[in-house]
């Protein structure tokens, strides 16, 4: 397996779960009110496409959403989508507008085809658009989740990308995105355990300079059992293919987070020793140091392990560490 990681597929799989999806929107959009029920959500096709006719020429526009669901409680119909962003996108309001506009265009096209097929268009105005005066389309709400460690410094609304002359501002229709910065997710009280674990552990990772301090972690979270998809999503956000692969190996069940990290560290230590045997002592020691630092092990403990695994004295171990 290649040691490359594309976070999008893993995060899409995580948010397709209705319980996680509904909890996310209830906390972010509805400020903690349990408005959206998981059993009222229906998966929708993520392909957003439309054919636009202009001067007799057809132009096709197509985009793939990350996740989109329909909320249907028997009375209200709303389409709700998620866009995952691992990096700041300086045209995000335009990107979201395209997704939403394509969905509205698709809905209008479906109505037009239905109306013309059933011959329900009466007035000349209805015939012109293919839409009846009484027809209604479903609103679309899109939430952007930004997983980056640094503060989002991109635009939040369309007008952030423009210098609008003062005289025109009152006539301008702005477009604002709904944005969740994962680094600020700690202020929300997620009720879904997977979401709580996901956001808590990501915050812990970022607060510790992009490392899991294994020794401290094992003291505080000894019995923490998390869903394998949660572990995979954490691996995707933190850029750890090791975590993603470990999660996939335990697909279908719960995973003890401390055991997972401990096993991965032991595998890394063994790999360092093997590299020392196969490639040379120096490479093996460097590989072991890299693994231990990745898991937030302090310098004193690293020196101890170097002395134990490679029979180094204090001076030699400190030299390699430096």
Describe the protein in words.
With about 325 residues, the protein is an alpha/beta fold. It has 2 domains: about 5-190, no CATH class; about 210-320, no CATH class. The chain has helices at about 5-15, 20-30, 90-120, 125-130, 195-205, 215-220, 230-240, 240-250, 255-280, 280-295, 300-310, 315-320; strands at about 40-45, 45-55, 55-65, 65-70, 75-85, 140-145, 180, 225, 255. The strands form 3 sheets. A 5-stranded mixed beta sheet has the order 1-4-5-6-7, sandwiched between helices. Strands 2-3 form a two-stranded antiparallel sheet. The longest helix is centred in the first third of the chain and has 27 residues, at about 90-120. It starts with 6 loop residues before the first helix and ends with a helix. The mean pLDDT is about 85.
């Amino acid at each position: 397996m290649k040691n490359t990681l594309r976070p999008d597929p893993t995060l899409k799989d995580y948010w397709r779960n209705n319980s996680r999806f509904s909890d996310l929107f209830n906390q972010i959009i509805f400020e903690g009110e349990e408005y959206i029920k998981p059993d009222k959500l229906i998966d929708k096709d993520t392909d957003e496409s439309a054919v636009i006719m202009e001067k007799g020429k057809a132009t096709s526009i197509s985009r793939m959403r990350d996740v989109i669901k329909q909320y249907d409680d028997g009375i209200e119909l709303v389409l709700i989508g998620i866009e995952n962003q691992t990096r700041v996108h300086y045209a995000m309001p335009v990107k979201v507008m395209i997704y939403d506009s394509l969905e509205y265009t698709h809905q209008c096209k479906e109505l037009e085809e239905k109306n013309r097929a059933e011959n329900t268009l009466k007035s000349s105005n209805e015939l012109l658009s293919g839409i009846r005066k009484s027809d209604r389309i479903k609103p679309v709400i899109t939430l952007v989740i930004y997983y980056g460690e640094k503060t989002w410094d991109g635009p939040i609304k369309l007008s952030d990308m423009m210098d609008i002359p003062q005289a025109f501002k009152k006539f301008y229709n702005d477009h604002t995105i709904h944005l969740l910065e994962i680094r600020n997710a700690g202020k929300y009280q997620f009720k879904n355990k997977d979401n709580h674990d996901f956001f808590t552990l990501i915050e812990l990772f970022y607060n510790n300079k992009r490392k899991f301090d294994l020794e401290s972690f094992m003291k505080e979270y000894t019995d923490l059992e998390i869903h394998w998809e949660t572990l995979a999503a954490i691996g995707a956000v933190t850029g750890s293919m090791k975590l993603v692969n470990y999660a996939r190996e335990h697909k279908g069940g719960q995973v003890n987070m401390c055991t997972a990290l401990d096993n991965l560290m032991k595998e890394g230590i063994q790999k360092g020793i093997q590299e020392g045997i196969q490639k040379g002592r120096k490479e093996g020691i460097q590989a072991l140091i890299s693994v231990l630092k990745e898991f937030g092990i302090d310098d004193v403990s690293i020196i101890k392990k170097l002395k134990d695994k490679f029979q180094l004295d204090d001076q030699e171990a400190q030299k390699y560490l430096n």
